[in-house]
Amino acid sequence: MAVAAVSAVGRWLTGGAPPKVRDRLLTTLIQRRPAVYISCAALLIMSVAAAIITRSGWAFAWLAIDAVLIAYRLYLSFRYDDGIRPPTEGREAVVASSFVLFVIFGLGCAASISTADPTLTLMAVISVMGVFAGLVSRWAAFPRLTLVTITLVGAPVCWSLAVLAGGAVWLAALQFALIGVTTSAQTIQNHHILVRMLRAEQRNWQMARTDLLTGLGNRAQLYEELNGACSRLRATPGEAGFALLYVDLDGFKTVNDTHGHAVGDKLLERIGRSLAAALDGDDRAYRIGGDEFLVVMPRADAARAEALATKIMAVIGASHDIDLPARVRVTASIGIALAPDDGCDAQLLIAHADRALYNAKRDGKDRFARYAA
């Protein structure tokens, strides 16, 4: 029950964004090793100074807790960060340990200020301001988490400043509180900017891999899929093969010549939707240009590929109503290549499926053909 409650609170603190954007935002929270070393050293200096100057039990306890949390943070860095790509594992543990470290740090700084030692007071205020500066930039991805952290770190320090010297420095406490509020406002502003940037980047990435007319994958996404499937086949002996269907429309040029390219585009759009609806499971359709489509069928043999080819021919061969006096009808010729039997390379498989398509058209169109070496 307690674990579920903590998990729910964690999701709320890091929520507020679509799943894919949230995943990218989590990555922005993770500092790389040089930044981790510097920030950990800065935090440890404060607790070491408190222990040396006060020689009190709370200061040594703070130093011990700091040392444990910092050692754990460094362990996470060495385990999950290879120094090349942003880490994708252990991110929640990094965020949780950093959050606890900051909260303990705020309490320690408040205790340091309450000693009225000028050196510790100055160091504590500077250190907490440094934490605020890091949070407003590094943790802007999740404003809820950042605002809670700023509050838990800043409130004890603000209180210690307010009661220091019998309240004689209350103006310093007020100034510190205002800085905390300003930092929070900047965090929210930075969050909105960051989310807009990530969403724009995501849209651009998707547009670069999508055929804008039909919404299907384009040539770039097709090659990405085929290269990945071929790599898995080569790396895993006994892995089930896949099928590639090369679909070309028969009579599409006549539609363009008779009714114009606008009607042709509408027809391609309708066929793209019909083709996607005809697929099952992990099967994916792509348009690589003109009236040419390709379908990738993971874990498919010849029988399944031929069954889908028959279904696609029936779907495309049906008449299509595109706001003309008469329905427009085209047919489809399909070439089939199987991996790894007909090759295990993206370009080679496409060439072989294209050769099979040529044979289907040569034999009368509106039919499918298997590749034969």
From TrEMBL:
Protein origin, superkingdom: Bacteria
TM spans (from-to): 34-53, 59-75, 95-114, 120-140, 147-173
GO molecular function list: diguanylate cyclase activity
PANTHER family documented for this protein: DIGUANYLATE CYCLASE DGCT-RELATED (PTHR46663:SF4)
E.C. number(s) listed in UniProt: 2.7.7.65
PROSITE patterns registered for this protein in UniProt: GGDEF
Domain GGDEF stretches: 240-373
The protein, known as: Diguanylate cyclase
SUPFAM superfamilies found in the cross-reference section: Nucleotide cyclase (SSF55073)
UniProt KW keywords: Membrane, Nucleotidyltransferase, Transferase, Transmembrane, Transmembrane helix
One Pfam family, short name: GGDEF
